[in-house]
Design brief:
402 residues; alpha/beta; Molybdenum Cofactor Biosythetic Enzyme, Chain A; Molybdopterin biosynthesis moeA protein, domain 3; 6-stranded mixed beta sheet; 7 helices; 31% strand; elongated
Length: 402
C-alpha cells in the first residue's frame, strides 16, 4: 500500500463527519462547549438610557455655562428610577447605572459641581449626551451575538447571561476512548522489568482530547495478543465512543496486532501508513459510527499524529467552525537538511527576535525523545522533497498547545 499524503489523510479522517447531536446545558456547564445554534439577545442592554458616572442628571441647556445654579429635586440610584420629569433649572442626583430621568439629556459629574443648600453650582459646562449610556448601546433584542459553531469562552458566558439565557443549546461532547497496546508497557510508578518502558502516551492524549472539549475513556493497556486487543476494541464500541484511539501495534512487525484485530471486528480501514515523519504507520478506519485512529507507539509520533488528525476530528464532531490548525510563517533559526518523500514535522522552539518570529528545530528529532517534545512549542513543516534550507529562510509552523 502506497504512503498517503498528509493532506489526503486528513481529508479522509474528516470525510463525512457531522456534528454530534444538540443538548441543553446550564451556563455554568457551558464553558468551552460549542454552540449548536445561533444565539440572539432576548433583551436590549441597557434597556433604558443610564448614567455612566456619579453626578447629576440635567438639561444641557440649563448647564451650558459655568456658574449656572440648579435646584436638586431628587435622587436616582441603580434599580430605583426617578419618576418626575426634570424641568428647566432642575437637576437630579444620579449614581452610576441609574436611569436617566425624563427631561434630562446630560450628566454633570459630581467633581464638576459645588453643592449648596438645596442645589448645585456648575463648574464645568454640560454637553448633551455626555456621561450617558444610550439604550441598546451594548446590544438590542434580536441581535445575533454568538454564532453556531462558536466555542464558548468565559467572556461569552458573561455575554449570554446578560442576554438573559439561563441555558444554552450546545453539541454533545465527543467521547474518545484510548487503548494502549504492548507487553513492554508498565504504568508510571512501577519498576520496569527487562525490556519494559513506562507508559506515557495516554496521559498526553487524554489531556489533548480533553482540552479540545472531548470526554475521554481510558481503556488501559492491552497485552500483545489479538484476544486482548479485540476485547479493548469491543469495550470502546460498547461504551458509545465516537472515536477509538489506539497507540502502538500499528507497524508491520509480528507483534503489531492492532490492524489485524480491528479488521477482525469489522473495521473498514481507510488508510494505513502516511507520508509523514514522525508517524508513518498511522491508520484510520470506521466501525459503524465509531471512527478509529491507530497511532504509532513512539511517544512523539503518537502525539504529533494526534495533534494533526485527532484534534481536527474532535473539533468537527463538536460542530466547531475552526476545525483546522492555523499555519503561521516564521524564519528558521538554524540550517535544515533536504527532505525526502515524506512531509516532516520538526519539533522546534520559537521566539520573537527583533519582532520577527523565529523557529529553531531541536537538534535531535528521534520519535522517542519525550524531553524534546515537551520543550517544543511548535512544529516546523517541511514539504516532501523540500531542498536544504539555511537559517533565516521562511518556513511554515504550527504552534503546539500551551
Amino acid at each position: 500500500m502506497a504512503l498517503m499524503p498528509v493532506a489526503d489523510a486528513l481529508s479522509a479522517v474528516l470525510d463525512g463527519v457531522e456534528p454530534l447531536p444538540e443538548e441543553m446545558v446550564a451556563l455554568d456547564a457551558a464553558h468551552h462547549r460549542v454552540l449548536a445554534r445561533d444565539v440572539a439577545a432576548l433583551r436590549t442592554q441597557p434597556p433604558q438610557a443610564m448614567s455612566a458616572m456619579d453626578g447629576y442628571a440635567v438639561r444641557a441647556a440649563d448647564a451650558s455655562h459655568v456658574a449656572a445654579r440648579l435646584k436638586v429635586i431628587g435622587e436616582v440610584a441603580a434599580g430605583r428610577p426617578f419618576e418626575t420629569t426634570v424641568a428647566a433649572g432642575e437637576a437630579v442626583r444620579i449614581f452610576t447605572g441609574g436611569v436617566i430621568p425624563a427631561g434630562a439629556d446630560a450628566v454633570i459629574i459630581q467633581e464638576d459641581t459645588v453643592v449648596e443648600a438645596g442645589g448645585i453650582t456648575i463648574t464645568e459646562a454640560a454637553i448633551a449626551g455626555r456621561h450617558i449610556r444610550p439604550a441598546g448601546i451594548d446590544f438590542r433584542e434580536g441581535d445575533v451575538l454568538l454564532a453556531r459553531g462558536t466555542r464558548l469562552t468565559d467572556r461569552d458566558l458573561s455575554l449570554v447571561a446578560g442576554m438573559n439565557y439561563p441555558r444554552l443549546p450546545v453539541r454533545r461532547r465527543p467521547k474518545v476512548a484510548i487503548l494502549a497496546t504492548g507487553d513492554e508497557l508498565v504504568m508510571p510508578g512501577a519498576i520496569p522489568g527487562p525490556g519494559q518502558i513506562v507508559y506515557s502516551n495516554g496521559y498526553a492524549l487524554r489531556a489533548l482530547a480533553s482540552s479540545e472539549g472531548a470526554e475521554t475513556i481510558d481503556l488501559g493497556i492491552a497485552p500483545d495478543s489479538v484476544e486482548a486487543t479485540t476485547e479493548g476494541i469491543r469495550r470502546a464500541r460498547d461504551s458509545g465512543a465516537d472515536v477509538l484511539v489506539t497507540t502502538g501495534g500499528a507497524s508491520v512487525g509480528d507483534h503489531d496486532l492492532v490492524k489485524r484485530s480491528l479488521e477482525g471486528e469489522g473495521v473498514t480501514i481507510t488508510f494505513w501508513r502516511i507520508a509523514m515523519r514522525p508517524g508513518k504507520p498511522m491508520m484510520h478506519g470506521r466501525l459503524g459510527a465509531m471512527r478509529v485512529i491507530g497511532l504509532p507507539g513512539n511517544p512523539v509520533s503518537s502525539y504529533v499524529c494526534a495533534f494533526l488528525f485527532l484534534v481536527p476530528l474532535i473539533r468537527a464532531l463538536s460542530g466547531r467552525t475552526d476545525v483546522h490548525h492555523i499555519r503561521e510563517t516564521a524564519l528558521l533559526g538554524r540550517d535544515v537538511v533536504a527532505n525526502d518523500v515524506r512531509e516532516d514535522y520538526l519539533r522546534a522552539r520559537i521566539e520573537a527576535r527583533e519582532g520577527v518570529l523565529t523557529a529553531t528545530p531541536v537538534n535531535h528529532q528521534d520519535s522517542s525523545l519525550l524531553g524534546n517534545l515537551a520543550a517544543a512549542q511548535a512544529l516546523v513543516i517541511r514539504p516532501p522533497l523540500a531542498p536544504a534550507a539555511i537559517a533565516g529562510s521562511a518556513c511554515d509552523i504550527l504552534r503546539l498547545p500551551v
